[in-house]
Design a protein that fits this description.
Length: about 425
């Protein structure tokens, strides 16, 4: 009997996360429908269904700041970035990410998916009070103490600290390598171990996402019926349209900035894009992306490695686009208006937060909490986005990988060369 039980446990454990979430949604809808008649009598009991989701969101908020800090430090210490190519790589990554966020905000402002439905009574009727103050932003870049950004979830200060320590540690590493010293290896190992530990904990939390989805969907259906999901349907359409526009932008950049033809680019990279969609992990797709760039598209090894191996640590265009659209969507749902300065804050925060988005499924949910906090939006509403994130995560991961491939092609130049 124990063998049968163990076998069943292993079989459920090895079911893909996306399928687990779909199964959870089916059971949640059934439970929510059964409880809908008792909503008036036992609203508190039904509200308790969202407890697992609330706990998971708290855990994600707690992991957000150390994840970004360690991700930036780890990338600085382990990435091999040559000088001139490194500067061009940084320019391409910043440009692509900024364009992605602008596309996301443009689509969200035009289609206004949050106005297609309501997710219930807003937690607060007051508009977010945070505005863009350039001089105040410059003064706030430097934190009062090292631990303050970790406690306050301040992304700007966090990235400043991470970049400062990253640049210094990288310079010390280069100096010690030139002097044949190995002291830096101890620091590198510590940071690598801590980063892997955070990723391991994040994997545990992500494994509980189906339980969170079950609770929040059952509660929503029981108390509000299916009306709130109309807004989520509009949100899905808007995100998919924005991701398609970003893909078109990539193809235009490849056409005019590289010797690779867009049709050859899509055909040669199709396996990497399909793998990214199926696994929802840019990290798991990295070897396939690198091989596709070398063998099927025909790029030089230096260009392929910079884009697919180094750039992938910093390039998360699809994630940045999604996080910016999510913030604007929730603001629209709550009937709040994010002014242009506040949307600029969303742009800055999304750029910085996307750097720390690890290449594992659902990792964008972690950094999204920081984007919401930056403009005073309630992070509790991320819970409902979890119900559709399992699908959109796959789509934006494919765009992340497509962005890596685009950067590699642009680094290879307009004329084909052989190393």
């Amino acid at each position: 009997m124990s063998k049968v039980t163990s076998k069943k446990y292993r079989s459920w454990k090895h079911i893909p996360l996306a399928l687990q979430i779909v199964i959870s949604i089916v059971f949640a809808v059934s439970l929510g429908t059964l409880l809908s008649g008792q909503a008036a009598n036992n609203p508190d009991l039904i509200n308790h269904l969202a407890t697992p989701c609330n706990l998971i969101l708290k855990a994600l908020r707690a992991l957000a700041t150390p994840l970004i800090m360690l991700a930036v430090l780890h990338s600085f210490l382990t990435a091999d970035i040559p000088g001139k190519s490194g500067r061009r790589l940084a320019t391409l990554l910043i440009t692509n990410t900024t364009v992605a966020i602008f596309i996301g905000l443009f689509v969200a402002n035009v289609l206004k998916p949050g106005s297609w439905g309501r997710l219930g009574a807003p937690l607060s009727t007051e508009a977010p009070s945070k505005t863009l103050d350039p001089w105040g932003l410059i003064q706030e870049i430097v934190p009062d103490s090292i631990l303050k950004p970790l406690v306050d979830n301040n992304v700007i200060q966090l990235i400043f600290m991470a970049l400062a320590f990253g640049v210094v540690l990288r310079a010390l590493k280069a100096q010690q390598i030139s002097e044949d010293k190995t002291d830096y290896q101890a620091i590198e190992r510590v940071i690598t171990i801590l980063f892997e530990a955070v990723i391991r904990i994040l994997h545990w939390i992500i494994a509980l996402v189906p339980l969170a989805v079950f609770g929040i969907v059952a509660k929503t259906v029981a108390l509000q019926g299916f009306a709130p999901f109309k807004a989520l349907g509009a949100f899905i359409v808007s995100v998919l349209l924005a991701l398609c526009l970003q893909a078109c932008y990539y193809l235009l950049r490849v056409k005019f900035g590289s010797w690779v033809k867009p049709t050859h680019f899509l055909r040669g990279g199709s396996e990497a894009l399909l793998t990214a969609f199926s696994t929802a992990s840019s990290t798991a797709t990295t070897p396939i992306t690198f091989e596709a760039l070398l063998e099927k598209i025909g790029l030089r090894e230096s260009s392929a490695s910079l884009g697919a191996l180094v750039g992938s640590n910093f390039n998360n265009d699809g994630t940045a686009l999604y996080e910016a659209m999510s913030a604007l969507f929730i603001a629209q749902v709550l009937g709040l208006h994010l002014s242009l300065p506040q949307q600029l804050i969303v742009i800055l925060t999304s750029i910085f937060a996307s750097v720390g988005a690890a290449g594992i499924p659902e990792a964008g949910l972690v950094t999204m909490t920081l984007v919401f906090t930056s403009v005073g939006l309630p992070t509790q509403y991320i819970a409902l986005l979890v119900t559709v994130d399992w699908f959109l995560d796959r789509c934006r991961t494919a765009i992340n990988v497509m962005g890596d491939m685009t950067v590699s092609c642009l680094l290879d130049g307009k004329q084909r060369r052989v190393e």
